[in-house]
């Protein structure tokens, strides 16, 4: 049976990872659609890398070398848009290149790099009281038209099972009650955490590790990168996994295969 492979990866700098493991990854895995976060490059810089995809879409931040998302695809989407839906909502948020959405025949694909609350939690209120509600509204509006797949770096570990040391990190950025509840609201809105749907009690499934103290080698990590979907797409999932063996970033790729 034919499949459609989707991959999401926070590369922590596209130009940097292009000098490391990225070319080998593309050659070996070659996902049909690749969603990237934190590209830290403008369109001209990204295009200069000549990546092996016929359809490449870039959404850089206004601030050079910061944030940004990309969608690379072997097939041409029906439509590609950036950011939120209404000009008023767009104007309410800094232009940081955090949302890139593509429409395909069977679903919308939303690639997201959710704002970090920051170590001092100075951006927590914005993250949970402004960004979160507007992002849910975007997904819910799209879901009324056709099923939605949303992937990317959500900058939150949802439950205690999603990080190695929950007791030590309670109320740290990425594991505050407010961020976790904001993520819960996505699930209550009808979206499915596909990895936990298939692996509800499996510990040690992480997608990000600190560069310090051999955290990745010891698997002292966090799961902050996700694929969520509308319920209608659950039955189409053929395979879904994290790829911690793929090096080059402090995040690992997340892989999803759908029955085409």
Mind telling me which CATH architecture this is? 4-Layer Sandwich
The SSE string, one letter per element, is EHHEHEEEHEEHEHHEHEEEEE
Classify the beta-strand content into a percent band: 25-35%
As a percent range, the share of helical residues equals 10-25%
The CATH homology group name = Endonuclease/exonuclease/phosphatase
N→C terminal distance: 8 Å
Class in CATH? Alpha Beta
Number of discrete domains: 1
So what's the overall shape? globular
Number of helices: 8
Low-pLDDT segments? none
Quick one: biggest sheet? 6 strands, mixed
Could you say which structural class the secondary elements and strand pairing correspond to? alpha+beta
**Total beta strands:** 14
* Strand order in the sheet with the most strands: 3-4-2-1-14-13
Describe the protein's architecture and organization:
The protein has helices at residues 14-17, 22-29, 43-47, 87-91, 124-143, 166-169, 177-188, 194-198; strands spanning 3-10, 33-37, 55-59, 69-73, 79-82, 99-103, 108-113, 148-153, 192-193, 208-209, 221-222, 225-229, 237-242, 254-259. The chain is an alpha+beta fold. It contains eight helices and 14 strands. The chain has a single domain (3-259), classed as 4-Layer Sandwich (Deoxyribonuclease I, Chain A). Helix 5 packs parallel to helix 7. The mean pLDDT is 97. The strands form three sheets. A six-stranded mixed beta sheet has the order 3-4-2-1-14-13. Strands 5-6-7-8-12-9 form a six-stranded mixed beta sheet.
